[in-house]
Amino acid sequence: MKLNIDIACPSKPEWLEAVMGDFNSFLQDHADCERKASAMAMSFVAKYPDRKEILPELIETAVEELEHFQQVYQLMEKRNVPLPSSMGKDIYVTNIIQACRSSREERFLDRLLVASVVETRGAERFRLVSEALKEEELKRFYKTLWVSEAKHGHIFVKMALNYFDKITVYKRLDYFIEKEAEVINALEIKAALH
After folding, report:
1. Is residue 3 part of a domain?
2. Cβ contacts of residue 11 below 8 Å, gap of 6+?
3. Pick from 50, 138, 176, 187: most CB atoms within 10 A?
């Protein structure tokens, strides 16, 4: 059973340059993304309370993402970087979600796979950030996040396999991997996770 997924295209070097050039803005966006990731995991719990097989992992993921938010916030405090006054709309995630189908079961599968692809992109980008950073504390922190995000990418595929056959899951996953590549390549490059 294949739980690890890949991305269809690597992040552009210009993205990493933008992040390194304005790391404080990246931290603000990163904090927002962690809050949203925690809320997304809990939204599965709220919408699908009957999916008891995956509730413990969803709750654990939500807590872990909230802990990441706390850790990013602590980094921001050390650097005197304020939290943004509001959470902006994540065009990247919104554009991928637009490709989700609308029936309850199909949407459930699609949203799990979107979460997997988004987490996998986060892992790739946190790896790049970790490798580019000079400050040892930050380097270690982003390496830890890279490992965690990769694990989350696997978890959401595993969850889908509780309810759908492998062929259905992996065919749809391939679709979202390609869709994610289209979306990421069309985005404006800026000091943000997406």
Report:
1. no
2. 121, 124, 125, 128, 184
3. 176
pLDDT at 75 over 80: yes
Cβ contacts of 22 within 8 Å, gap of 6 or more: 191
Scanning the structure block, which residue is given the tokens 């922190």?
Answer: 141
Q: Which amino acid is at 96?
A: I
H helix runs in 133-165, sequence order: 136-161
- What is the model's pTM? 0.94
Say which residues have a Cβ less than 8 Å from residue 63's Cβ, sequence separation at least 6. 38
Name the band, by pLDDT with cuts 50, 70 and 90, for residue 88.
Answer: confident
Q: With H, G, I as helix, E, B as strand and everything else as coil, classify residue 35.
A: helix
At residue 54, the 3 state secondary structure works out as coil
180 near 98, Cβ under 8 Å? no
Helix, coil or strand: residue 14:
helix
Cα 74 from Cα 172, distance rounded (Å): 38
Distance CA 118, CA 106 (A): 18
Whether residue 174 contacts residue 1, with contact meaning beta carbons closer than 8 Å, is answered with no
Number of folded domains in the chain?
1
Domain that residue 97 falls in? 18-186
The CATH code of the domain that includes 54 is: 1.20.1260.10
**pLDDT for 54 beyond 70:** yes
